[in-house]
Design brief:
222 residues, 6 helices, Methane Monooxygenase Hydroxylase, Chain G, domain 1, mainly alpha, homodimer
Chain lengths: 222, 222
């Protein structure tokens, strides 16, 4: 029974990693559709979101089944409820990829921009943070989780630089206002993905501390 | 034992309502601090977020305790895990109130703007949606939940109008670009609150459907 449950927890973890991979790919391709002005690719991302939504429901049902049938211990219960929360965060990161793709469709209709600023750099960092946050959850690695929270400041700095560059460009009228606003929204979407990764990482840190405290109380009681 | 558990579920619901009230107040006051150029009030909102974070942890712990100790049925389990998810969404809505307050601090430093557009209208609708989404969850009212999803379109329309008004104002140079971008971000923050309310409402609809299906299967089996 316990071995079977352990296998189910591994299954839950695997499903979550699969979800993570699909979402990371959606983010990368959404930014690619913007950089390469590939509207067909952008539309694929928008349509592909349905797959992410279905996977979210599947993982959600599986997690609830595990709690109801296996009556997990406090530590396993926390693992499963965190997996459910991460599942929901990944789905929302997928929504951000859709937002980026929608902005790409709009921007690709206009004349090409000279530069897309540091958006690819932001995208790379945001997807790395998301991947690392999942790893830190599975490995219960509070140190890695803490590093993610620090990377979030780096991501915010990149976003601030993009904002200020676009503001300058609008002032000098070297970019049309609607285009600049669309690019600001893309930077904002990438920042949101970083926030979702940070939410996950903060939970990992909190639980790591929480278990330590509980462990300490248990020891004193014995 | 069952009566005790029922009381605990009511307690969980009450705690969530308390959290909802505090967050709604934070959103309203954040917008007020912008409209009345009240930087002191904005700073109170920023500092008050700590209280919301502590309340989130308290509710999270309480929900986990209930699952671990009471081994709830499928329906009660779904109620508790949804409460945990809503708890996390409310905390994020509180973060949006902080973002609005931060933008208010920045904007209040500048010369007064002629108009703040339809931002108060957006704020009113977004907080109403959040309140209604909590009600629909507790009442398991899928009809009310559906209405919230429709209001989200209304909120998006308001945001689009604000965006386009600000874009026009930037073009005519009747507003400085950094100020316009700050106001765009406030509109975006309010839209995010509407999204969080919609997430809650969508879960209510999904669970209502899910329970119907399960109920139907149970009936067939009997």
């Amino acid at each position: 029974m316990q071995r079977h449950f352990d296998e189910e927890l591994v299954q839950l973890k695997d499903k979550l990693f699969k979800m993570g991979l699909i979402v990371e790919e959606a983010i990368q391709k959404a930014v690619e559709s913007l950089m390469k002005r590939d509207t067909k690719l952008a539309e694929e991302i928008i349509q592909g979101d349905q797959r992410i939504n279905i996977l979210e429901i599947e993982i959600d049902e599986f997690g609830h089944e595990l709690i109801a049938l296996r009556q997990p211990t406090a530590v396993d219960l926390r693992f499963i409820t965190m997996a459910l929360k991460i599942n929901s965060d990944l789905e929302r990161a997928g929504d951000q990829a859709v937002n980026i793709a929608e902005n790409a469709v709009t921007l690709n209709r206009e004349i090409p921009l000279k530069t897309h600023l540091e958006i690819p750099k932001m995208a790379e960092l945001a997807t790395k943070m998301l991947k690392d946050s999942l790893d830190s959850f599975v490995e219960r690695d509070a140190v890695q989780a803490k590093a993610i929270c620090e990377q979030d400041d780096e991501l915010d700095d990149l976003k601030d630089r993009i904002y200020s560059d676009l503001q300058q460009a609008m002032k000098k009228q070297s970019i049309e206002v609607p285009q600049a606003v669309s690019l600001i929204m893309v930077a904002h979407n990438l920042e949101r993905i970083g926030d979702l990764a940070t939410n996950i990482a903060e939970d990992v840190i909190y639980v790591a501390k929480g278990i330590d405290i509980r462990h300490h109380i248990t020891e004193r009681r014995e």
